[in-house]
UniProtKB/TrEMBL annotation, chain A:
It comes from Branchiibius hedensis. The keyword Transferase does not apply. One of its GO terms (molecular function) is iron ion binding. Residues 778-808 have a biased composition (Basic and acidic residues). Keywords: 2Fe-2S, Iron, Iron-sulfur, Metal-binding, Oxidoreductase. SMART domains: Ald_Xan_dh_C. NCBIfam families: xanthine_xdhB. This is Xanthine dehydrogenase, molybdenum binding subunit apoprotein. Residues 778-820 are annotated as: Disordered. Residues 27-133 form the Aldehyde oxidase/xanthine dehydrogenase a/b hammerhead domain. PANTHER family: XANTHINE DEHYDROGENASE. It comes from the Bacteria.
UniProtKB/TrEMBL annotation, chain B:
Gene3D superfamilies: 3.10.20.30, 3.30.465.10, [2Fe-2S]-binding domain (1.10.150.120), CO dehydrogenase flavoprotein, C-terminal domain (3.30.390.50), Uridine Diphospho-n-acetylenolpyruvylglucosamine Reductase, domain 2 (3.30.43.10). It comes from Branchiibius hedensis. It comes from the Bacteria. This is Xanthine dehydrogenase small subunit. Keywords: FAD, Flavoprotein, Iron, Metal-binding, Oxidoreductase.
């Protein structure tokens, strides 16, 4: 066991405790960025003037009428920028654009004494436009060759040979839209020049260091003149990794120019029309299977819909390419990736970060091809799972291949998959207008930032004379329970009770040069750094204690605030007594901790290497019921087995798994971004820009039964206290919902037909899918490319495959590597 | 001018007519309630208000603070999450939410806590005698073993937890102690409405004392805007910056708050909230009982009224299709007295009706006998708290297997709600068989002029009209079918 992963006896990590701020949350006492406005004097409120064109040159902006509105203090424009007029890191996002690139793009910002005055005045700013052609869809972008950024190419083996060898070759297309983050707390920043002359910004940001850098470059300041604090966020999900910077910069600029605090908070409509979302993707694919349904070759071109600027689109695409095979061994792979530039919001990070978009390609393929192969979809998935010694298409060995199989088995056992599959067949035979289906899908998700440099974390741990401990770290709290875990890590590493440790809000003047709290890496990186800082302090305290006990420093034990020594009969020392003694002996009681993830390497030019520290694994089993009259459906039951390593905090981890699943299910089934793609005057406008039109899962979408277990025997050697990252991977467990809906829709028609199900699978989409199945219409979007014969079928019935084998295959994956 | 918030007095002086209760509470430093959407969809702003029960006693009611004008709270009693408990002294609802992982980011949590508290204090909540039973007699509600109706949380969105721990928290709640301060207030009369009449920054908010006064106000002021639960007006004010020179609050007018039943039918006051109607009818009109759980959310139903839903005249309102199938008529009160208008003749165009500017919908009248077989089919993306793409109200009577009366109301398929008279004509006098249904379904599919928008395509809307009768037929003839 590595020292990083090893737990002491009686660790506080692993205890199931509520979120550290739970009692503040439930009493309304937890403060978020915009809650600070009422505590701040003379605040100005900012409101944007938004473009009414999807793409246009701004030829004139007239402010006179707006400035005449009572309460208006000033209007911020490009002329006001002392530094660089740019809100991003790629230098392609002017903060004040002269050419608007999407409908809703902010042109300038009004500052006023009241929010009302700022809103009214923003409506009075006159803008002249010279409209330019706008590209609204990926298909249009492909036709116009409107691409931006890198075009990664990943290749392993020989796909041509693979297809030649394949008994079955299919090809098709698949396109889907993105997803709105819909964090309940919209973007917010509050900036002021503080008593020390520095600009101090409270920001709802997942990446305070980058917010700091962008604000500094906009203001023409050095980083040490700008401090960013994030108390907590009301949700982030990736939407606050890059997007907060420009809003913070506007508030900071306004504050410097007016000498007053400036508050910028987007309402829901502004947030939805201005901030980036999950990328939609288009894919063209060709796949080859052998006679037993083993994957032999995959060729695909995937194109992301990035919106108007690059933002994080390159790493998102890289992750999509690196996850296209999900949990399946495919010997021959050739994938090309492209980034479409369209006139939409600049799409950005969202839980999964391209991973889901890549994985959907293969899951959609398997769901559509299974009936054509005459193989039960669950069996097809199980038999293609990674086996021993196999590597991903980019060359990283899947060392924990066995966990995929174990998770699959544990989930199917827990769900009673085989028995329920039989019950469902009976139910469906007895019901003409209602059909059920059960599906299982796996997740294998790489943990670490693809860009190696980001895989570092920092912490500052302060122990006071009285023994109390204050920890700072570079990660931000957005609800994922990172702070809870960090408190547990610190208490474990110092051997003190949880109540001894307090956590200070994330600030750039405490821990510098931090990475975004993203890529599920928050606990790995910051936990490593907190642990490191605590261990430095412990190592300094050991000699102090050893002197007292008369033992070797290595024999001192720290356990829940009691310091003792092996082989000593002396009374144990209370922790606070030890820290007091240490102070008087002039022993330093604070430490800066640091952690870097070891063993990573990545070559983005060849798309090869081992970019991930490890993979998080999981399996979901989902049963749905579909109404044949309307396409409406309910999720009857979900069983999940997920690999979180040795959990740092089980209540937190189960919350992440359930929440991630439901958020993914929302994207799979009902969250629908609709842009105006017509040639009318509203071209480019987001039609679903409010909670009334963009529907998230509510209580009614919650699975009637929901069982989550953690994978057993899952110690992770390479991470803090044997744990694994958990933020993103569970989102992709929700693919099981869509696959179950696909199978339920298919159940309305004759067996053996491929079902093309739109994403999101809204009731309408499911209705069209089941109507197509009912009418026996073929999935026009998947083509059988080989001359291979149709598998034999039992007349009028199910694919010819003995029941026993189907059941066995579903329960017991056959590692792909075990075949010749 | 003042209100009581968490037991303390809070001033409403200088508050404008368009300031919503959420912004006002946050300006008082009570930042627990949050703005998540400003249109009554997410519930992050949910707070408790003391409202009158049918007998005038207090019932704790959760509402969306973002939708109601702050001035509507004059002399009223409000409790926010801060008022329920402290970090060191949590309220039972807060305790369950905290220890079960009911909060992650915590932003929606104060709103959930308030919605959950309202259900915790619901006077007629009783633990299920059969712990295994998850549905009440109408099958519309989803209750826990403690009698907690999950629909109480249908207007609260959480983006983090996936809801399971919140449900567990709700189902773990006991029955409040008699010594609980809020229980003790149950027996007290709810605060009476104040006769607010104030003009701030050029805009007037007035709560007239009588229906006659309300009609006078409408007659004398062209710009006057009626509000009851403000569930529609609040959205316009928040999102579209709509501003009225005069807001006339009619939600507490006694003349609009009666519910009576006699041998000819039911008369339902236009300013009763949907929740109040649901509670007072207690299943006496089965079609409405099917409508209520599908109508927006509990938070909205605690404010929204039939008067408002019909007054705005939206073609996608959920009550018109049901009320059309029930052959309802409206009692309109105006300067020249009262008149009755059949609902089928009420709508004249997109958000247009025969109601005159100074007329107020006083009541909805539902005649007897009620149809024997009814259904309300709402087609939407989401089962709770969504706007319908198509809504169909169905009511038929059978006599010896022959359809003796058929009434079908439709929403979402034209500029107004409408009656599917062609399909009704096909059905009436014909045997209730699959063949008749097929023919009538074809006629129903021709009804209206459905359009495509972000909610649904016109083809799907048409398909849903076509399948509605088939589904209804199966529902009325089959016992084995379990619908999704």
């Amino acid at each position: 066991m590595s020292s990083l992963s090893q737990r002491p006896t009686n660790p506080i990590v692993g205890e199931s405790i509520p979120h550290e701020a739970a009692s503040l949350h439930v009493t309304g006492k937890a403060l978020y960025t915009d809650d600070l406005v009422i505590r701040t004097k003379d605040v100005l409120h900012a409101w944007p003037v938004q473009s009414t064109h999807a793409h246009a040159r701004v030829t004139a902006v007239r402010l006179d009428e707006a400035l005449a509105v009572p309460g208006v203090v000033r209007v911020l424009t490009a002329d006001d920028v002392p530094g660089v007029n740019d809100a991003g890191v790629k230098h392609d996002e002017p903060l004040f654009p002269s050419e608007v690139m999407f409908h809703g793009h902010a042109i300038c910002w009004v500052l006023a004494d009241t929010l009302d005055a700022a809103r009214v005045a923003a409506g009075k700013v006159e803008v002249d436009y010279e409209p330019l052609p706008a590209i609204m869809t990926v298909t249009e972008a492909i036709a116009a060759e409107s691409f931006q950024g890198a075009r990664p190419h990943m290749e392993r083996g020989d796909v041509t040979a693979g297809f030649a060898e394949a008994a079955h070759v299919f090809s098709g297309e698949f396109e889907f839209k993105g997803q709105e983050h819909f964090y309940l707390e919209t973007h917010a920043a509050l900036a002021q020049v503080d008593e020390n002359g520095q600009i101090f910004i409270q920001s709802s940001t997942q990446h305070p260091s980058e917010t700091q850098e962008i604000v500094a470059h906009v203001l023409g300041l050095a980083s040490h003149e700008v401090t960013v604090q994030c108390l907590r966020m009301g949700g982030g999900f990736g939407g606050k990794e890059m997007q907060p910077h420009g809003f913070a910069a506007i508030a900071a600029l306004g504050s410097i120019l007016t000498g007053r605090p400036v508050r910028l908070r987007l309402n829901r409509t502004l947030d939805m029309t201005m901030s980036g979302k999950r990328h939609g993707f288009h894919s063209e694919w060709k796949v080859g299977f052998d006679d037993d349904g083993h994957l032999l070759a995959l060729e695909a071109t995937i194109t992301s819909d990035a919106g108007w600027s690059l933002d994080l689109s390159e790493p998102v695409l890289a992750r999509a390419v690196c996850h296209i095979e999900n949990a399946y061994w495919i010997p021959n792979v050739c994938v090309d990736g492209r980034i479409a530039r369209t006139n939409k919001t600049s799409q950005t990070a969202f839980r999964g970060f391209g991973g889901p978009q890549g994985m959907l390609v293969i899951e959609d393929i398997l769901g559509r091809c299974a009936p054509l192969l005459g193989i039960d979809p669950a069996a097809l998935r199980a038999r293609n799972l990674y086996g021993p010694g196999q590597t991903t298409p980019y060359g990283q060995e899947v060392t924990q291949w066995d966990r995929l199989g174990r998770a699959w088995q544990q989930a199917c056992n827990q769900a009673g998959f085989a028995e329920r599959q039989q019950e469902i067949e009976k139910f469906n035979a007895a019901h003409d207008h209602t059909k059920r289906a059960i599906a299982a899908t796996p997740v294998k998700f790489g943990i670490s930032f693809n860009l190696t440099a980001f895989n570092q974390g920092g912490a500052l741990v302060l122990v006071y004379k009285d023994g109390s401990v204050l920890i700072n770290h570079g990660g931000t709290e957005m609800g994922q329970g990172l702070h809870t875990k960090m408190l547990q890590v610190a208490a474990t590493a110092l051997g003190v009770p949880l109540s001894t440790v307090r956590l200070a809000p994330t600030r750039t003047d405490k821990v510098p040069n931090t990475s975004a709290t993203a890529a599920s890496s928050g606990a790995d990186l910051n936990g490593g750094a907190v642990k490191n800082a605590c261990e430095q302090i412990i190592e300094r305290l050991r000699p102090v204690a050893a002197q007292h006990f008369g033992v070797n420093p290595a024999d001192v034990r720290f356990d829940h605030g009691v310091v003792s020594a092996i082989g000593s009969t002396a009374e144990p020392l209370p922790w606070a007594e030890l820290t007091k003694r240490a102070y008087f002996q002039r022993v330093q009681l604070s430490a800066a901790g640091y952690y870097r993830t070891e063993g990573l390497h990545w070559d983005s030019s060849t798309m090869t290497g081992s970019p991930f520290k490890y993979f998080a694994n999981g399996v979901a089993v989902c049963e749905v019921e579909v109404d044949g009259f309307t396409g409406a459906y309910q999720t009857r039951r979900v069983d999940i087995v997920h690999d979180v390593g040795d959990s740092l905090s089980p209540l937190v981890d189960i919350g992440q798994i359930e929440g991630g699943f439901v958020q993914g299910a929302g994207w799979m089934t009902l969250e629908e971004l609709v842009w105006d793609e017509s040639d009318g005057p509203r071209r480019g406008r987001l039609a679903t820009q409010a909670a009334s039109t963009y529907k998230l899962p509510s209580f009614s979408e919650m699975p009637q039964e929901f069982h989550v277990s953690l994978l057993e025997q899952a110690h992770e050697e390479g991470a803090v206290y044997g744990s694994k990252a958990v933020g993103e991977p569970p989102l992709m467990l929700a693919f099981a919902v869509r696959e179950a809906l696909r199978q339920a829709a298919a159940a309305f028609g004759p067996a053996g037909a491929s079902v093309d199900l739109a994403l999101p699978a809204t009731p309408e989409a499911v209705y069209w899918a089941l109507e197509a199945a009912r009418s026996g219409e073929a999935d026009g979007n998947v083509r059988r490319d080989s001359a291979a014969v149709e598998p034999e079928r039992i007349p009028g019935g199910h694919p010819m495959r003995p029941e026993s084998e189907r059941v066995a295959a579903a329960e017991q994956p056959q590692p792909a590597g075990s075949r010749p | 001018m003042r209100a009581t918030v968490n037991g303390s007095t809070a001033s409403l002086d200088e508050v404008t007519a368009h300031t919503n209760a959420l912004d006002w509470l946050r300006d008082q430093g009570l930042t627990g309630a949050k703005e998540g959407c400003a249109e009554g969809e997410c519930g992050a702003c949910s707070v408790l208000v003391a409202r009158p029960d049918a007998d005038g006693s207090t019932t704790w009611t959760a509402i969306n603070a973002c939708l109601i004008p702050a001035l509507s709270l004059e002399e009223q009693t409000v409790i926010t999450a801060e008022g329920l408990g402290e970090p060191g002294d949590l309220h039972p609802v807060q305790q369950e939410m905290a220890v079960r992982g009911g909060s992650q980011c915590g932003y929606c949590t104060p709103g959930f806590v308030c919605s959950m508290a309202a259900e915790y204090y619901r006077k007629d909540r009783v633990p299920a005698s059969d712990a295994g039973s998850e549905a009440d007699e109408h099958g519309a509600h989803e209750c826990g073993p403690n009698g907690f109706d999950l629909h109480a949380l249908s207007g609260n969105l959480c983006r983090c937890t996936g809801y399971r721990p919140i449900r567990d928290a709700a189902y773990a709640l006991g029955i409040p102690e008699d010594t609980d301060e809020l229980v003790q207030q149950h027996s007290q009369p709810a605060p009476a409405p104040a006769h607010t009449d104030v003009t701030v920054a050029g805009a007037r908010y007035v709560r007239p004392q009588s229906l006659a006064e309300a009609i006078d106000l409408l007659a004398s002021d062209d710009q006057a805007q009626l509000v009851a639960g403000s569930t529609d007006w609040g959205v316009a004010a928040n999102l579209m910056m709509s501003r009225a020179t005069t807001l006339v609050a009619i939600d507490r007018l006694a003349e609009l708050r009666d519910l009576t039943e006699d041998e000819t039918g039911f008369t339902i006051g236009a300013a009763l909230t949907l929740s109040e109607i649901e509670r007072r009818l207690a299943g006496r009109i089965p079609l409405l009982d099917k409508l209520f759980p599908q109508f927006a959310s509990r938070l909205i139903r605690n404010g929204g009224t039939f008067g408002g839903n019909l007054g705005t005249g939206s073609p996608i309102g959920d009550s018109p299709p049901a009320l059309l199938a029930l052959e309802a008529s409206l009692l309109l009160a105006g300067p020249d007295g009262e008149r009755s208008v059949p609902l089928a003749e009420y709508f004249t165009g997109y958000r247009q009706s025969v109601r005159e500017k100074a007329e107020i919908i006083k009541a909805v009248v539902i005649p007897k006998p009620l149809a024997a077989h009814t259904a309300f089919h709402k087609i939407a993306k989401r089962r709770f708290d969504d706007i319908s793409s198509v809504a169909v109200g169905l009511a038929i009577d059978l006599s010896d297997g022959v359809v003796s009366r058929a009434r079908i109301g439709l929403g979402g398929v034209a500029a107004t709600p409408l009656r599917a008279t062609a399909a009704e004509a096909v059905l009436e006098g014909r045997p209730w068989t699959a063949g008749t249904v097929r023919e009538a379904a074809a006629a129903l599919a021709d009804a209206g002029t459905p359009m495509s928008d972000h909610r649904a395509s016109s083809a799907y809307r048409t398909a849903m009209l076509r399948t509605a009768l088939h589904k209804f037929y199966v529902e009325t003839t089959s016992v084995q079918e379990v619908s999704a």
